[in-house]
Design a protein that fits this description.
Radius of gyration: 24 Å
CATH topology of the largest domain: Rossmann fold
Largest sheet: 7 strands, parallel
Structural class: alpha/beta
Number of helices: 19
Number of strands: 22
CATH architecture of the largest domain: 3-Layer(aba) Sandwich
CATH class of the largest domain: Alpha Beta
Shape: globular
CATH superfamily of the largest domain: P-loop containing nucleotide triphosphate hydrolases
Strand content: 15-25%
Strand order of the largest sheet: 11-12-10-13-14-9-15
């Protein structure tokens, strides 16, 4: 008798039939502790044990994208398998993809023909052959063009009554992706304005157009029936696809076998990676930031880690909570004066990233405007209208000496401002995703920009044997920079 029998339930789940003992082993194999679970209210109130269980022991179901992990589980334990789930493994070659793009799509970008790079061809080829995958390709590698090439191909392959859904995390990414598609197709007979429909707050969720670009927030509450019209789904910047509302959206696409996720970064946790792979497919690394820099496809990056030291006032910060420390730092006038002077001393365009709008972002914006009346100064945060964000993005791209004060939430992921020469981390973070995505805002090359400078601001509030929270976060960022092989050096400044 076969130990494991694997059946496909739908485009989301597979069912694994086995004896109870093996099922419990599978459950343990796909059970993970959520990072920092001990700090969550649900755990503190004893409503949750801090574990995520990907295998449902009751229904014996698991996300379909995790098939390879199940087969590996069985092989390692010498279990026999009857696998009735058939995954495509096509024979499309990179040369065929290149010919298709050059001869059929004839893509343009700002009135210049696009010649696809090798990593883009590899990514498109892999996605077409596998049909389910998670493309790991860093910021600036041209993920929007990869998605465009794939949707154009699948529009001709999926049934004519089926549509393609593209899900992104923010409204500015909806507008940006739509503009990119319009640009790429400007010299072809395919018209993005006629073929694509965008959805965000207040916009119609029903359309006859075959390509729908939406934020997940706009559609995740819709009934399952709404999602039966889609034959393919693309998740852009899907490192954010870990909230319950997002997994709920993806699990409603039960008749959608073509699933491609793209991201520049994963957060490093096994749980995060497996959830996204389960919803889409196994990770395929197209390239790395360092490889793109070495090929001169991205700007060269240099990092100055500026460590701010304080006077006797740090005695009042010892052993305070993380939130208290953050408030102390972002309301510290000497620290903010330093940030304002740094912005003014930097030539070319500056992107200053902050985390707290009312306490930090708005005061910095007003002080910078007052200090440098001759410079163009802009602010973007969650309350900025999407059309205004897009307008600011395009203005900054044309400026040579602008300062953009932007929240991490609106500008750390996805937004494409090529003409950024300097980035300032005004608020501390240890998140792999946030750090790498934020750096990516400045990596795109232009005709007159080959280098970008990051100013990573950290704060030394150590007192005797006590080490403050955000100083520890600096150590985590150093690990990220070393792992990515970025050039960085430390500069200590006493305020």
């Amino acid at each position: 008798m076969t130990d494991l029998q694997i059946h496909e339930v739908d485009s989301v789940h597979m069912k694994i039939e086995s004896e109870k003992g093996i099922a419990r082993e599978l459950s343990d194999f796909f059970t993970f502790s959520v990072p920092n679970y001990q700090y969550t209210p649900a755990y503190k109130n004893k409503l949750w044990d801090g574990q995520i269980r990907l295998f449902n022991l009751h229904t014996r179901t698991l996300y379909g994208g995790l098939l390879d992990y199940v087969l590996s589980f069985a092989k390692d334990r010498n279990y026999t398998v009857s696998n009735l789930v058939k995954r495509p493994n096509g024979t499309i070659t990179k040369d065929m993809v290149e010919k298709y793009i050059n001869d059929y799509l004839k893509p343009y970008c700002v009135d210049k023909p696009i010649k696809p790079h090798e990593h883009q061809l590899n990514a498109v080829t892999h996605a077409l052959n596998k049909q389910r995958c998670l493309l790991l390709s860093p910021t600036g590698s041209g993920k929007s063009f990869i998605i465009y090439s794939l949707i154009r191909y699948y529009l001709d392959k999926i049934p004519k009554d089926k549509k393609i859904l593209i899900v992104v995390p923010t409204t500015n990414l909806v507008a940006q992706l739509y503009d990119d598609f319009n640009d790429y197709s400007s010299k072809s007979s395919w018209n993005a304005k006629k073929e694509c429909h965008t959805i965000y707050a207040g916009k119609n969720k029903e359309t006859d157009r075959r390509v729908v670009i939406t934020t997940w927030q706009s559609v995740y509450k819709l009934h399952t029936n709404h999602f039966q019209q889609y034959g393919a789904v693309f998740g852009d910047e899907c490192h954010l696809f870990k909230a319950k509302s997002l997994t709920s959206l993806m699990t409603k696409l039960t008749e959608c076998p073509i699933r491609v996720g793209t991201t520049g970064t994963l957060d490093g946790t096994q749980t995060h990676k497996l959830v996204i792979e389960g919803l889409f497919g196994k990770v395929f690394k197209a390239t790395t930031t360092k490889e793109l820099m070495d090929k001169n496809l991205l700007s060269k990056l240099d990092i100055d880690r500026i460590v701010l030291k304080y006077g006797d006032e740090i005695e009042e910060t010892k052993r305070i909570t993380y939130q208290e420390e953050i408030k102390w730092l972002i309301t510290n006038q000497k620290r903010n004066d330093f940030l304002i002077k740094l912005c003014g001393n930097l030539d070319s365009n500056v992107l200053l990233l902050y985390n707290y709008v009312e306490l930090h972002g708005k005061p910095l914006y007003e002080m910078i405007k007052k200090s440098y009346p001759k410079r163009k100064v802009f602010m973007i945060y969650g309350g900025t209208d999407v059309d205004q964000r897009e307008k600011i993005r395009k203005i900054v791209d044309r400026q040579k000496n602008a300062i953009l004060v932007a929240s991490y939430g609106t500008c750390s992921t996805g937004i494409n401002i090529k003409n950024i020469h300097n980035i300032i981390f005004a608020s501390p973070s240890k998140s792999v995703v946030r750090v790498l995505q934020s750096i990516g805002r400045g990596l795109r090359r232009t005709e007159d920009k080959n280098n970008v400078k990051l100013y990573d601001i950290s704060d030394d509030l150590r007192y005797r044997k006590y080490t403050n929270h955000t100083y520890k976060h600096m150590d985590e960022r150093i690990k990220i920079y070393n792992r990515e092989k970025f050039n960085h050096n430390a500069i200590t400044i006493r305020l």
